[in-house]
Design a protein that fits this description.
Elements (H helix, E strand, L loop, with lengths): L1 H16 L7 H6 L14 H11 L5 E13 L1 E12 L6 E11 L7 E7 L1
Antiparallel strand pairs: 1-2, 2-3, 3-4
Length: 118
């Protein structure tokens, strides 16, 4: 029974992802790696609110999210590309990536998983 379940899940995954050889050039341009991040897109109000909640209380650098990509895991990873500005005399501005993890409902609050200067 377990082998049948695994085989069925594998077939569903292959159907959802498709085979690169069988996709048209236009379909391949739009294809995102299964399990990977979506393409970066403009933020929606819900993305901005999630970012605000996750970054509340941060000091030293202010981050302004410019775009977001998502990855479904046991919850959702949000990859925000931000403009960062240090809160110092003669502030420095640079681009940064902030990964925010939003657990499944009832599993906790969104939190910053990683910040990387780009």
């Amino acid at each position: 029974m377990l082998k049948l379940t695994i085989a069925a899940l594998a077939a569903m995954l292959l159907t959802a992802c498709g085979s690169p050889e069988k996709r048209t050039e236009k379909q391949q341009e739009k294809t995102i790696l299964c399990g990977g991040y979506t393409g970066q897109r403009p933020l929606e109000a819900s993305d901005r609110e999630l970012f605000r909640r996750a970054t509340t209380g941060m000091t030293g650098v202010s981050y302004t999210p410019e775009s977001v990509a998502t990855q479904v895991v046991a919850g959702t990873n949000y990859r925000f590309i931000c403009t960062a500005k240090t809160a110092t005399p003669g502030p420095e501005t640079y681009e940064a990536e902030i990964i925010v993890f939003q657990p499944l409902p009832g599993q906790g609050e969104a939190k910053i998983a990683k910040i990387t200067r780009l």
